[in-house]
Amino acid sequence: MMKRLTIRLAPAAAAVALALGLGAAVAPTAQAAPVHPVRTSPWLSGGELPLSSTFHWKAEPKTEYTTTGQFQWLFTCGIGDPTTEVHSSSVSVMQFGGAKNVVASQLLFHFRSTAVAKAALARLERDYSSCAARLDKENSVDISSGKRLHWTVTRTASLTEGAAYRVTGRDSAGKLADDPDLYSDAQELFVQHGATLSMVGIYAESSKIDNAAGAGSTLRTMDYRLTHA
Fold it and tell me: Does 57 lie in the same domain as 8?
């Protein structure tokens, strides 16, 4: 899977004087301009991703695209085609570079309404709450060691409209999972605002990325960027 407007309002006294034709006799009083939020892009910069101090992520805008097509896989705990599962209308994707054997991306799921987007987040939260048990029931075996794999899914941070998860797979001896379908380590973060759901995913095949200390900060940044986009 791998874009401020300052408005100065006339003082009330000056406005009244102007209405009476006495504008020249009344000197306007200076007032502070109202503060308006600066519009931001919903896309994160590399430094805003989790583990940025370790992997020095760099956003790759040239990889950005939007599609209404289907995907086989977009997040660890989904069931079936992910866009069908969450009922998105389209998906925008951008990759981040800077690490070997670890990949990162951000996705923007677009929906026909806020209600559908909220339902998508709720569906994801349900899927992740039962994900570890479902994966363990599959009785998958490590390709290289032949030992049974065990999966953990931990909610590492949350907002009113968002959550972050850490997913790890290990064999019975503690070795990083060698699985044909899933990464041994993943951090996946979701935030919904309006009719958009933003997701950040970081995945590793042969490296531990289980330090989720920055997950809360990234969630708040994702929320701010969506709210002010």
Answer: no
